[in-house]
Structures are given as C-alpha cells and as structure tokens.
Design goal:
This protein is of the alpha+beta class and 146 residues long. The chain is built from 5 helices and 5 strands, in the order E-H-H-E-E-E-E-H-H-H.
Length: 146
C-alpha cells in the first residue's frame, strides 16, 4: 500500500488545527502538518498499529501534539476519517464517536458509488473516478506539504 486519502471533514480539521498552531507561534503549524505526515507514514508501514475502535477503523495518537488520527484501512486503502483533538475525543461518548465515524464512512461509500469506484461501475465511470482519485491524492499531498 502506498497511498492514502483524507475524508473532506478530516481535511478541514487538519487545516483548522494547523492554522490554530501557526497563529500561536510561527512555524508550529508546519510542524503540526509534518507530524501528521510522519504519523501517516508510520501507519502506512503497519496499518494495524493503531487502537482498534471498530472493524477496519483505528486510532493513532500523534507523538508531539495532543491529536489523534482516526483512520480506516480497507482493501489496501488508508482513509483518514478524522483529525481529532484528544480532549474532544474524551468528551465524546464512545457511541457518539462511532456514530461520527460510521457517518463519514457511509458518505465516502456513497460518493464512491456515484463515481463508479466500486465493482460494477461502467468502464468510463471507473476511468473518471481514477482520474479524480489521482487528482485528490495530488491535492492532499500538496496541502500536507504546505
């Protein structure tokens, strides 16, 4: 496995947290993004390292910042579902956290179905979906590289 993707809400959470840290001290936002990137590399090498929350959904804490990456690993694909402050994770009851994760996973599946990314889609839809996936991966890489 070599790639990963961010759920749209997780992208927003990442940008929001990076801006917060950058506002606190110059360069800290970039350090936060670098720590996210480092943690994703660790997860890509061994997806089962995180704490199991639900089937195919795990949590991995960042080393330097009080954040967790909530991610899904299915069919050799890593999807970051949430970039969540540890304080917020404790405030949410486990059932609420699972509902949030399930909702995000359902939205992702629905969008994949619309894009033809699931078996049974037309060849044209799969080709368009592959182009969009490649573009999304480029975008996520560029955003993380900030």
């Amino acid at each position: 496995m070599t790639g990963y993707a961010f759920h749209p809400d997780a992208k927003f959470e990442l940008r929001d947290a990076a801006r917060y840290y950058e506002d606190r001290r110059r360069g800290l936002g970039k350090a936060f993004v670098a720590e996210i990137r480092r943690t994703i590399c660790v997860i890509l090498r061994n997806p089962q390292l995180g704490t199991l929350l639900e089937t195919h959904v795990r949590r991995r804490a960042l080393r330097r910042f009080p954040y967790n990456l909530i991610y899904s690993y299915e069919n050799d694909t890593l999807t970051v579902l949430a970039v969540m402050h540890q304080k917020h994770a404790w405030l949410l009851a486990k059932s609420q956290l699972m509902n949030l994760i399930s909702l995000r996973r359902r939205r992702k599946r629905k969008s994949q179905t619309k894009l033809g990314q699931v078996p049974g889609g037309t060849p044209q839809a799969r080709a368009v979906a592959e182009q969009r996936r490649a573009y999304s991966t480029e975008l996520a890489s560029a955003e993380i590289a900030m």
